[in-house]
Amino acid sequence: MNWTEDQLAEWARIMELRDSALGQLDALKKEAGMNKAREYNAQRYYFQGIGRYAPDQAYARGLADLQVLADLIPADGYVHGAKPTSIDAGIYGFIANIHFFPIPTPLKAFVTAHPNLVRHCEAIHAAVSR
Predict the structure, then answer these.
(1) What is residue 23's DSSP assignment?
(2) How many angstroms separate the first and last alpha carbons of the chain?
(3) In angstroms, rounded to a whole number, what is the distance separating the alpha carbons of residues 99 and 114?
(4) What gap in Å lies between CA 106 and CA 59, rounded to an integer?
C-alpha cells in the first residue's frame, strides 16, 4: 500500500500527539512518585521523632546537640585521649552527615564555626578512608 502525503502527514500528527501525551504521562508519574516519596519521608521523620517539630524547632534541637559535642570534643586528640574509640566513631557518624553535606544549613554553619568539630570529623574520616 502506498501512502498519500495527506495520510503521512496525518500519521506524523498522530505520532506527535502520542509523544506529547506520553510526555505528559511521564511528568504525571514523576510528580506522583515525588509526592509519594515526600509522604513516605514525612511519615518516617514523624515516627523518628524529628518530624513532630517545626523546622526552626528541629534546628534548635540539632544545634543544642552540636553544642554538647563542641564542648565535649577537645582541640586535639579524641574524646578519651590520643586514640579514637567507638564514641568518636558515633560522633563522626553524626557530624560527617552535616560537615560533608554540600548545602548550607544552620547545622553546617555551626560545625564549620567550630574547628574542633571539623578537625575531629576530618581525622576520623581520614582514618576510615585509608
Answers:
(1) H
(2) 69
(3) 11
(4) 7
- Indicate left, alpha or beta for 77 from its phi (over 0: left) and psi (-120 to 50: alpha): left
Residue 117 CA to residue 63 CA, distance in Å, equals 13
Q: Quickly count: other Cβ atoms within 10 Å of residue 66's Cβ.
A: 20
Q: CA torsion sign, 81 to 84 to 90 to 92?
A: positive
* Average pLDDT value for residue range 32-49: 87
Q: Is 56 helix (H, G, I), strand (E, B) or coil?
A: helix
Q: What does the alpha-carbon distance between residue 71 and residue 34 come to, in Å, rounded to a whole number?
A: 40
Coil, strand, or helix at residue 81?
A: strand
Residue with cell 517545626: 54
Mean pLDDT of 45-68: 92
Check residue 21 and give its pLDDT: 75
Q: Could you give the CA distance from residue 23 to residue 54 in angstroms, rounded to a whole number?
A: 37
Placement of cell 523546622 in the chain:
55
Task: Say what the pLDDT of residue 2 is.
Answer: 66
Report the percentage of the chain scoring pLDDT > 90. 58
